[in-house]
Amino acid sequence: ELFTHPLILPCQHSVCHKCIRELLMLNHDDSFDAGSECSLPGSPRSRVPSPSMERLDRLVRSGSVSSPGWRRGSVTPRITTIPCPGCQHDIDLGERGISMLFRNFTLENIVERYRQAARAAVAIMCNVCKPPQVQEATKSCMDCKASFCNECFKLNHPWGTPKAQHEYVGPTTNFRPKVLMCPEHEMEKVNMYCEVCKRPVCHLCKLGGAHANHKVTSMSSAYKILKEKLAKSIHYLISKEDQVKAQITGLESLINQTEENGQLAERRANEHFERLFETLQERKTEMLRSIEQSRSRRLDQLKGQVEEYQGMLENSGLVGYAQEVLKETDQSCFVQTAKQLHVRIQKATESLRTFHPAADPCFDEFVLETSREETLLKEMCFGGVPDPPLIDLSSSRVYNEANIHWRLSEDSLPTDHHVLEYRRQGEGDGDDGSTWRSTERVYGPSTSVSGLEPDCLYSFRVRSSRNSMFSPYSPEVTFHTPPAPAFGFLFNDKCGFSTERLILNKRRDTVESVAGMGFLLAADRVQTGSYLGLDYIIGDTGISQGRHFWAFRVEPYSFLIKVGVASDTKLVEWFHNPRDTSSPRYDHDSGHDSGSEDTCYELSQPFTLLTLGMGKVFIPKASSSSSVRILPMPQRMGICLDYDACRVYFYDADSMRCLYERQVDCSGTMYPAFGLMGSGKVQLEDFSTAKRLTF
Description:
The structure is a single chain. This protein has 15 helices and 33 strands. The two termini are 57 Å apart. The radius of gyration is 45 Å and the shape is flat. The chain has a 7-stranded antiparallel sheet with strand order 21-22-33-24-29-30-31. It has a 6-stranded antiparallel sheet with strand order 23-32-25-26-27-28. With 695 residues, it is of the alpha+beta class.
């Protein structure tokens, strides 16, 4: 049907006011209160002289003052989403509902011109002339909302009066005002064009509204520029009419070819499967025949053996005959018969002593192993099936979220999309241990999976699709999730940060220590047994409850780096009362032993740290051991702080193997802490710098 009162949606499609009302009623029929009379003053720009539309405006506008959110039974939902009838995309009308949409005056004018052309045979008569001499109208006044002939128009709009300034158009019956008003400021006309948002705005929007900092231009300038662009685009399309027709012809030919080739491919596939079915049927018949022959032969052998043994029973067969022979009194006749009979009885007796069934009832040699064939059938695919992708272990990371990356082989053809599947491993997990869960279609080389449980093993696999054909699955890879959710923070450059010796990048996720002249000048003190001070840096976010995990990478060339946690209550005292950095006790893992002095010193330190350096991890001394345990430094280190249990754990972040744990004094707020000496570099993992948690 022709458009009536069309509105422009954000997707640039137009929809009738009546149609959008029906969509709203259809999608949210249980959230509208049909009897509500709550209303706000409406904007004259989109008000249509219809009671039903005015009522709908009241319903939509009432949502901005009657309800802070969407509650079942409220007048209207705070955020209303409807599908666009043109493109089927969801359109969010926001809090203001229909009132935020512009009227499409251009489309209204097109429809009106079409209707006028359709009514050309029916003249519009003057509304002022008295019958019977009613003249045909030549003008319609938009202010008077009436049509006039030439004489009546002059009489009702004399020169020198305010009516002479009225706006008039050709004869029409449509007297609705065509003034575009601002959706945000209902009484203001739009007179500017926002180049950032690509929409008309009023002067209040520019002065203090949402477009205050946006670049705007005058409406006349925007009109001129857009009109030129549209004219050029239309001219270009018209000039390419022959090319478009040729392309349409080519597309129609491709449609026919696609239909024919699809049917041909379907017939060929059916032929292949029919041959497979015939081959399977032949093999089935042959193998079942061999089983039947073996079964018949064995049954005959066993039945013959049964008959033979039944002959040994009393009053039948051999035993009965022997009993009758014993009754013979003639010696010569008895001897003649008894000799052969005795041989037969001896054979029967021997068979009883060494009894063996005449045939084996087991058919193990006829058991079919079809797993390889089943795998081949499942992997049977067309020649154009894409190769399976490979999950990139070096780029993939798994925390409480998994960020999985994969890559295709260099000679692989382009794919349409990918599907990632994952499952949790473990005994006693029920469906979680065996059921694969899949993501939505992924159109890039990576995707994220959220909602993973801590301290669990997860398997991942991915496959590609091209032209609706899936590749085989990639080899499964397994990741171990951390024992706690990922903790988000960046390096703090405000608290005790040494700008002279430490270099912090702009993102504040990498800190580097450079061995400069000060370190070289102090080399003589290192040789004589003294220790240099560490340059400390802490995280900008603290922990005051719960369990949290963060990971980082330490460059293998790093000379000495200490990692762990620090207490804010002790940090204040530490920075206000600096220790003697020339003392061996400055480094509580140095091995210096001074009895109770060291004990008091360690208790007063704000840091609980583990030492790394030169590609190694130095595990502190245990009370029962006299030597330091040295382990190779992992590619990625992880730390888990259990604030409530007052324990800190140090992990190999790749395998999630705990390397060391110890008690920690969780007084106040705890911060991630790092100490660097000499050349070294620490880089936080992306999941740690994402700032996903808020405290």
